[in-house]
Amino acid sequence: MKKYLLILLTGLLFISCDKDPDLEDHMLDSGLRFDQSVYEPEKFLVSYANPNPTPAEAQRPVLIAIHGYSASTFEWSEFRTWAGGRTDFAISQVLMGGHGRSYQSFKEATWKDWRQPIMEEYERLEQAGYQNISFAGSSTGCTLVLEMLANGYFNNRIQPRHIFFVDPNIIASDKILSLVGVVGPIIGYTEAEHTAGEAQYWYRFRPYETLKELRSLLNKVRKELQKGITLPPNTSLKVYKAEKDDVTDPVGAVLIYKGVKTSDGKTVDISMIPSNLHVFTRLEHREGTITTQDGDNQQQVFEDMATRLVR
Amino acid sequence: MKPKIKPKALLLALLFPFFLASAHGQQKPLDVGIRFQKTLDMYYENGLTAQYALSERWAVGAHYISSRLGSAMGSNAIKQDNIFVSGAYLFRPQRSLRPFVRANVGFFRADYEAEIFDNLPNTSPLASLETGLTYPITPPLKVTGSVGYNAITGDGTKGPGTLFPVFYQLSFTWNMFNQTAP
User: Fold this and answer.
1) pLDDT confidence tier of residue A244, bands split at 50, 70 and 90
2) pLDDT tens across A258-271, in order?
3) Do residues A146 and A229 touch, judged by C-beta distance below 8 A?
4) Looking at chain B, which residue has its C-alpha nearest residue A228?
């Protein structure tokens, strides 16, 4: 019996070693093609594009847009394109730490590293004098903003004006994430199915170390929601959640509804969207046909966000 | 109209081991007590448990646990109820420390409280397997600990999202009918 156990343990040890995937040059994971915001931050970040705003520019809304786990700034590019030449608000597309670079940098980053560039952009904008700063998060981008709200990051700072969440990640749809501590060291990484277009902007391979970080973050924020998160005075939160989503479970919207209150004790605004796409506002490079409903969902949410921003 | 756990059904299910015990003339142990359960990465759900020994090795039971008696007490956790019946097989029935396996089937319901979530699934059948150990602390008091796996969970497109796979539980039970038996 002991002999078989020893063989089994040796086998497990063997298959749990050296678990890095084979990377191809066209993949974001390869380290050969970084997110464009790394090379040209002034095209993505308002703090770089306009570090010395005039008093009028400082009053205009700036929206910090944050992508999700394993994604990159591309996830919010369609909103920038949709906004086109509008000058009544500006968009800062932040690249989360460890993202948009290489498999190795992703593997080494913690969820606090993912959060760091969001805080840096907020602080640069604040120091530059911007007065009207809002957030738009998709998927895990929302989780990080919720964590910042819960940890008191905005105390003694300029309060964010509006917060928009698209498909917030509170509970992963794949419940096996809860077992990543056991399964992770054996499998090493998981692999996502991407179209050729998506492979340029999303990591295909997810090291189990990053899945452990994601699990830690989700558990932390779920517990904070359980205790209750109060928005700063004059900050609004609007959640847009697809009714079916195989990445972030729609029940996360229920947890936000129950767990977040405005400063005067009211519930936050939730819209359940008739969609089965994860981050339904991103339509480019999707596999399969984009329906009229998908297009309408995106347009309506973009219009709603813009209207609220400049209200 | 979404199905709800009706109090009458709950009562009937929980009394199921008592009916069996009565039918057998109260000769076998009927363990009744409280169950503390934690789901990995989810809630504490506590409640009642009852298990009747059909023979030395086989037992049937009924259980009700809820976040109402756990994580949702004084917090924003979702209120959710689990009711299930079980069949268990005990190994080493003559020893103090008895390993067992148990199969559970039942019904799960979560209360999302607001109409905007009416399109989200909030009910599900339950099917799980448990394995653990039971130990008579001092008869008729018994403690049972186990780890279980839910075969049916939510996946974002169907099934309630707070139904997770792995749980562990601790039960303290009192043998109602056969107080000298361990």
Assistant:
1) very high
2) 999 999 999 999 99
3) yes
4) B76
Q: What is the domain count for chain A?
A: 1
Q: Is the pLDDT at A141 greater than 90, yes or no?
A: yes
**Looking at the domain assignment, is residue B61 inside a domain?**
yes
Could you give the number of structural domains in chain B? Answer: 1
**Residues spanned by the domain of A267:** 24-310
A207 lies in some domain: yes
| Residue for token pair 């905005």 | A154
- ipTM, two decimals: 0.91
Three-state SS at B115: helix
The predicted-structure confidence for B102-137, as pLDDT tens digits, reads as follows 999 999 999 999 999 999 999 999 999 999 999 999
Are B156 and A255 in contact (CB < 8 Å)? no
Q: Is residue B180 part of a domain?
A: no
Q: Are strands B79-90 and B58-66 parallel, antiparallel or unpaired?
A: antiparallel
Q: Which of B71, B76, B110 minimises the CB distance to A228?
A: B76
> What is the mean pLDDT of the segment spanning B40-65?
97
Q: Give the residue numbers in B contacting A (CB under 8 Å), as ranges.
A: 40-42, 71, 75-78, 110, 112-114, 116-117, 119-120, 153-157, 160-166
Looking up residue B35, the CATH number of its domain turns out to be: 2.40.160.20
Q: Which two tokens stand for residue B14?
A: 């929980």
Tokens coding B36: 């503390």
Alpha-carbon dihedral angle through residues A298, B78, A145, A135, given to the nearest 10 degrees? 40
Confidence of residue A7 (pLDDT cuts 50, 70, 90): low
Structure tokens at A83: 């906004």
A2 band by pLDDT with thresholds 50, 70 and 90: low
Report the gap between the CA of B110 and the closest CA in chain A (Å).
10
